[in-house]
Amino acid sequence: MFLTRSEYDRGVNTFSPEGRLFQVEYAIEAIKLGSTAIGICTPEGVVLGVEKRITSPLMITSKIEKIFEVDKHIGCAVSGLIADSRTMVERARAESQNHWFTYNEQMSVESVAQAVSNLAIQFSGDYDSNQQ
Fold it and tell me: Name one GO cellular component term (predicted).
C-alpha cells in the first residue's frame, strides 16, 4: 500500500518515493516569502537592518518589530514568521539571563545561538530528548 502526498509531508524526515522531503521543500518556499534581514560587523560594533513588508492594509509599519535586544551585548534581527521569532528571542533572553544568574558573567553570542538552535532542532523529528 502506498502513501499519498499528504502522508509524506507530515514529518521532516519522511521521504516520498521520489526521494523528496516535502516539509523541507515547504520550508524553502516559506523562506522565499520572508523579508530581508542583514547584520554587518564593523570594528566599532554591529549594524542590523530589516525589511518591513506590508502584506495587509491592516498592518501598521511602525508597530512591526523585527530587531530585538536579547541582552545588553546581543541583538537579533529576524525574518519570517514573527510569532516563531518571538518564541526564539524569548528563549535566547531566558538562556542569557539564566547564565548570568548562574555564573555571574555574560553568555557568549555563540552559546546563545547554540541554545536557540537546540530549541529549533526539537521540532525536526530527529531530536533526542536526552540530548541537551
Answer: cytoplasm
